[in-house]
Prior knowledge:
Blueprint: H1 14-21, E1 25-29, E2 37-44, H2 49-69, E3 73-81, E4 85-93, H3 103-114, E5 138-145, H4 150-160, E6 163-173, E7 176-185, H5 196-216, H6 218-222, E8 230-234, H7 243-254, E9 280-286, E10 291-299, H8 304-314, E11 317-327, E12 330-339, H9 348-364, E13 370-377, H10 382-392, E14 395-403, E15 408-417, H11 425-435, E16 438-442, H12 477-491
Antiparallel strand pairs: 1-2, 2-4, 3-4, 3-11, 5-7, 5-8, 6-7, 6-14, 9-10, 10-12, 11-12, 13-15, 13-16, 14-15
Helix pairs in contact: 2-8, 4-5, 4-10, 7-8, 8-9, 10-11
Amino acid sequence: MMEIAYKPYIDANYESLIERIYPPRVCIDNETYQDCTLVKVTKSLKTGKLKAKGRRRICQLEMVQVLTDLDLVISKSYISSDGRWFMDVFHVTDQLGNKLTDEGLIHYIQQALGATRNEGLQRVADRFKSRHVSTEHTILEMSGMDRPGLLSEISAVLAELDCHIAAAEAWTHNGRTACVIYVDDGANIGRPIVDPNHLTRIEVQLENVMEAHHHHHYHSRAAGVDERQSVRVTDPVVGRTHTERRLHQLMFVGGDYQRCGCSCRQEEQACSSQECDEPHVSIEGWKGKGYSVVNIKSRDRPKLLFDTVCAITDMDYVVSHAALRSEGIMANQEYFIRPKDGCTLNEESEKRMLTKSLISAIEGRLSHGLRVDVSTHNRKGLLSEVTRVLRENGLSIPRAEIRTPGNRAIGSFYVMDAAGEEIDPGTLELIRKEIGGSVLMINKSSSGRSTPRLLSASSTISMSGSIKDHKPRLSLGGLIWLKLERLSGNLQ
């Protein structure tokens, strides 16, 4: 006997309709403080409890992403939510430490932070669209075990298959690698690859490259090391996941955190030296409120907030409250979180996994080696040429990023030799002659000191400098409630 089940019909556009009725309120305040601009975002979440929590997690990450992509320096941030509403405040400046006075930039921030999920960033001002990769590209995602020359092999295969690389970004950490590449049809640059046979050949060849390396490391499997590898080819999509967040996801799924040697990174075991800049994480339960309190102390660096929130979000935790600040070159972050199901973190295994994931997310972007900036005329096979020259000179690439605005190709490659030593300047000259254009080696800032940029997206990274004596506060619990009470009064 056939059973007939009835359930209420819910229009798919209902949630987006609610978002349009109750959009986020964005306030750009240049009056309260003399040395920074306040970006305040408040929103009421008029949906079911679980949907509200899920949407809150996405909103929170999207807001940090918008500010990060604009190279803004966030010196402090306060976050609060009760599941039905949220209020986020960011203290921001530009890269020179000035307030935000550009009307076009302010308007962009208001639009981007106030955009609904369906609108995304599609309606923002044209002058800022160049910061994002176009959606009209075929997307290649790869993850697996790392080895010297892997990026060179991947780019060589794509060149042979007549793929033009429009943009690419690759990370390596704890013996794993993740890479996202945007490609066009080499015969029709600017257009995605539509031939299904061509797409199949690309996927098969890339799988062969990744799989060959996995077979090469048979001893790792014998030692119980996770060697998951994946290759994914997707069509152009609107509203796709942010590239760097996707890299975090690929690293996490690949298990880079499993190799995290963080047994001595707990807060109570933190090294007593003021020059210790390794990240330290402590997790404590707050049973009275149902929160788990996560404290993170680490050296400040670009995109620190983004990387931390990515890790928390992608592990299905909800941030109810948070306070973040920099003190000198150190950064302190305190999060009051719950798992998505509303429970607290009770199992030690859950705490260890979260600790390892946070440390891996923080350390994964740290740049090892020497940064080489390349700017030259855009042409097919350029990434293959650059990586081939680096490989032939015995250099590995722990991190790389390249984009092609207009007819130019601009890229940053972090390179190091097998021994981790400095690179011979003659090698850079060889690279310049090989690819043409300009090649710039960046080893230290003009002042000769480290130049930390709190939670920002600065494209200049200093590879030198010592840590000075800055004593951070170990807890922000008392501060957060005082600040949130004041902010609640100001926003009413």
